[in-house]
Amino acid sequence: KRILELPESTPYWGLIKETRVWPMEQRIKYQRLMLYENMVKSGRKRLGGEILINQREEGKENNWYGRTKQIALEMDIQIEEAEEMCKKEWKRIVKEQINKAIEGKLVEKEREQRKMRHQIGQKFEKKGYLKKIGVAEASNMIRRRLEMLDVGNNQGILRQCRYFKEKEETVHLIKCKGMK
Q1: Rounded mean pLDDT of 60-88?
Q2: How far, in Å, CA of 154 to CA of 148, rounded?
Q3: pLDDT band at 173 (very low <50, low <70, confident <90, very high)
Q4: Are 40 and 49 in contact (CB under 8 A)?
Q5: What whole-number distance in Å separates Cα of residue 83 and Cα of residue 90?
Q6: pTM for this entry
Q7: Strand, coil or helix: 172
Q8: Residues 62, 68, 73, CA angle at the centre, nearest 5°?
């Protein structure tokens, strides 16, 4: 929000969908699963691998291995497959599953949050306009797309269009012939 100079009230999940930046929780899960793959392949040659193998053999769920396995299961990843796969394939699967989890959360938030209604059905990807314009223009574009402009109905104020006496909403102002 600070980089794009957006207000604190900017919907978090709307910003995630516009920019395709993973939430911190998902980034941590990704790093953890990639570290697991690294440690399990190092085996007993390194201390981390040794500890991991011991935790796996113990079969407890309240240790690093158990929690990592639980995270993998939540994302529909079979953690045992990391040993047989090459790093590139493991990375691809982990990224796909994280993206799928984020997309599921976004669909849920689109239904709950009014300001995200214009994003329904859009892909979870970095929007093209972010690559082509500067910070100020990107900030204004995100504000429009997430209904963050000072338009009466966006701010909880029931104002009317001064030209056609219709409810002042972003959609109306974009189409309003009196504004052009």
Answers
A1: 91
A2: 7
A3: low
A4: yes
A5: 9
A6: 0.73
A7: helix
A8: 110
